[in-house]
Amino acid sequence: MSRRATLRLLLLGLLLCWCGVFLRSENTEKSIVRALLLEQTPEQWNVALLYQFPEAAADSSDAAASVQLCAGTGKTLEQALFAAEEHLPQRPSYRLCEYLFLNTGSLRGELSACEPLFCERADLRLATRVLAVTPGCEELLARAEEEERFPEQLLQCAKDTAERAPHLYERGKGLLLPVVQLKEGSITLQKEALLLTETGTFSLTEEETEMARVLLEYGQEHTFTVEETPITIRRSVLGVQAAGDGFTVQLTFQKKAASATPTETQCQKLETLCAETVQRCWDAGADILSLGSVRALQDGQKTAFLTEKNACPAVQADVIFLG
Amino acid sequence: MNQPAVNGGFAPQTLFLGLAASSLASSFLKTEELSARSFLLWGLPAALGLCLLSALLAAEFQARELFSGKGVFSRLGCGVSGLWFAVELIRTVRTAQEVCWSQFSSMAALSVLPLLLWAGWALPEAVFDRSSRVLWWLAGLGALLCAAGLAGQLHWQNLFPASYRFTGADLGQILYPEYFALTFLCPQRQWRKAVWMPLGSFGVQAAFCFGMALLFGARQGSGLPGYELLRSWTLGAFSRFDAVFLLLWLAAMFFRICVLAHILRLLWEKFRGRSVCEVSP
Amino acid sequence: MPQLSPKLTENLALLDEMFGSSADFYSKEVELYHCRGALVLFDGMASLESLWELLLDAVSRRTPALDETPGGSAVFDLLLHHSGLPAESSPVETLDDLTRRLTAGMAVLLLDGCAQGIAFSVQSLKFRSVEEPPGEGNLRGSREGFADLLRVNLSLLRRLIRTEQLVQEVTQADCEMKTEYALCYCKGKVSPGALAQVRKILAQAKPELLLDSSYFVPWLFPCRFRLFSPVSYTERPAVAAAKLCEGKIIVLVNGSPSAMILPTLFCENFDCLDDYATTAFFSSFLRILKYGAFYLSIFLPGAFVCTAVYLPELLPPILLFKIAAAEKATPLPLFAEMVMIILILEIIREAGLRMPQTLGHSVSLVAALIVGDAAIAAGLMSTPVLLVAGITSVAIFITPSLYEPATLLRLLVVLAAGLAGPVGLVSAGLFVLFGLTQVSTLGVPYLNDSSFSSDGVIRRNYRVLSSNPFTIWQRRKPE
């Protein structure tokens, strides 16, 4: 073999060795974490993980991956998370983790702590949907041990509620959190949501919750009970304009086919509800219609920016139903 | 390999693909806050200034035959440019590896590096030009998909925060050696398009910056990692697509590594005074 | 080149030495005009009956008399120029020429006293009839396919292009078997420079054997390693004629029905004869399908392995868990399983191609049982992997001309994605792209923007296409 050919072979061998040094083979055996549950108590942090881990099945039609729950505690959030991961059957993968449950007991603290965690880790993301949950991690774990299907129901509740839940990155503007509760042994969604702002945590009424969701454009279908008549809205379009010192809010609704056409009185009630909800949220410290930005767009630098520290401007709502 | 490289020149879109990828990297690797208004106020004049400088220097270097490879002055020019391109190559490799490690927990970028350098060294410019057209199509599709997934989450109101904090701009991140080597890199008939590359890079960074602002709004205190914009994508049954965008970006970065390796080869041959077969534009 | 001897005995002795031990060599001494001569031919290639009829016919015509006993040259001159014998116009002068004509199926008359021979075209060569080629199916259009004989193939082309534009140059290759090949082109459309280059290369090529036109490729496109070949092949005269009208060059080799077309574009692998016989919408739909199938066959196994292992968020959770459950039950990691099943499918495909027809059913049954049922029941393979490998194996047959590169690339992509994850997948994709864009022949890039022309991925109405005829040299990069 010529010297050149030998040199070529040597270089090829070196190249293969170099390539091989940094390569590795992985497999799919991971515990896929679907949701994080955080609870901060005065003494410690409790973290629970909703995960899926499929059992072996050569024929895929027999494959099943039941949802399971495990928990851990620690002085800090990172320690609690690490402790929870220890209970996972395989190493964790958070790439499918889309839901974050925060215990209603200490929402602000939990939010402040988890945002840096989510920013640091590449497999978590700030677009995670945030929900509030009333039972603590211990209670949930106990329930999961009693009833095998409980974790799956919890996850399903999160999936069903997802479009009505805010993203974690919306924290700065105020979060309208749906509340998941354990009622009569089953997981349900509370009709009243919690509004979490810089100034505090506020509970909205059922009607205010629904109207706030319309104004924040969370979800497509909404149901209002006006004068004991349910009105289901399939789609809504929101328009906000500055008018003098106040604002006009135009709500264009498309009602669901089977739903009754609202009367003039009912529309007026909805308009009143809209204005009251805006006022309520403003007082709680959340400008859910971004009235300050609308004013800034119209007036520019002429006036100071309108914030929740100012008095709530007058809001005139106008509700129109199509079809 | 022993044949001298044929310097037919790159098409501007070939160079710009790499620059766009690099500009995007500087956007999503940053963690400090950068307001959209600041970026626009600082970045646009700087980009326009760079375009002007690029055009003036191209004319000057052409007149002085800076990259001809003949004479001490020309060799010095080739040497200095070569060093800058080498630094840029190392920076590009580091960036690609950083993203691979942070996002995919993979060191494989280092393992494919010799192959990329070899490909860049050996392949002619025409191959890169043709490949760049395909990659641009993929980039366009990726951008459309990105826009579709973020559309529902972008709110113009976020551009008007309660309090506006004026932040500076890292001008060091917008200087690339390609801007100052147009006479060497592109045929003369393409200079008119190539001088606008700084504006294009600025456009990419501005789009990202505005995307961040529209999605997250102004945040008091520390900014968010740029990756979060990609991670916020959601469309239908798919909840997360940032990996696909990063892979497209990675393809463009690997492409840039190959192009830079080829440029280094051309500069090296000029520096050594070897005749480079020049194809007239 | 040794010349023929004027002495008949010497010529016959030489021929006897060269071919005497061959059972098909026929030599008969005759006397014409009192001049000794000999008829030589290869039995089975030349027809004795045709020769007899030819001679009888010539005998019945009026032939000028010779006054005295003529020498061989006089008889030669009489027979060749002044008689009714339908002989070949050019005489046989050298031993090489004699051998060439005899092996072409001609009969040669040698005369004593004349260093030249007269050749008669009495070929009766046995060859495969003109049938539909099995490898190129179509619904509409011509069903003729090239035969193995070069002259027959040339005639098939001549029947389709009935103008003076078609030129068919026949030359003997510089190989041991002295095989003939033909260079066909339309003189008004081909690039003269490219043609001269191809002609020169083929003349200088020295293949040991020339059994097919593809044997010329290493001389035409010297390259240490090539994935995509910038030539295509066809067994249909209609397709060959269409390519000739686009200014391309066709190379036909005697003994092979496969015509080599050069230069070729990548996008031409995705169109076929049927495209122009159906509506523009349907043929466009089929082309998009073909593009999708091609890229699917290359990237699907690798992407499947990469997403399942490294990027699970890109798969629906139910599918992801089925894949994970299946992988957990099998002894090999996902990418190793994928490589194994791809290799097994290749073995089955190759066996199906080579095995005798009578065994076909048995082997198919065994393959289906082993791979399809027993392997899964035994837990050696999983159904998702089998499904993906099966889909890709079938998908590639939608573009059979790209089968070879697609098979190799599929393996490469799977290995890259399995070992290096998403980075490997991207690198492999870039490698494929460079492999496509690197290929260029006679100044025409293999991958160019023809895909976006009026006859690319989307085909326009044929009337529109006809108003702006396409020649391949429009795609040549300017020099």
From TrEMBL, chain A:
It comes from the Bacteria. This is Uncharacterized protein. It comes from Faecalibacterium prausnitzii. The lineage of its organism: Bacteria, Bacillati, Bacillota, Clostridia, Eubacteriales.
Automatic annotation (TrEMBL), chain B:
It comes from the Bacteria. Keywords: Membrane, Transmembrane, Transmembrane helix. The chain crosses the membrane at residues 41-61, 104-123, 135-156, 194-218, 238-264. This is Uncharacterized protein.
TrEMBL record, chain C:
The keyword Transmembrane applies. GO terms for cellular component: membrane. It comes from Faecalibacterium prausnitzii. GO terms for biological process: spore germination. This is Spore germination protein. Keywords: Membrane, Transmembrane, Transmembrane helix. The lineage of its organism: Bacteria, Bacillati, Bacillota, Clostridia, Eubacteriales. InterPro entries: Spore_Ger, UPF0353/GerABKA_families. Belongs to the GerABKA family. The chain crosses the membrane at residues 293-311, 331-348, 386-404, 411-436.
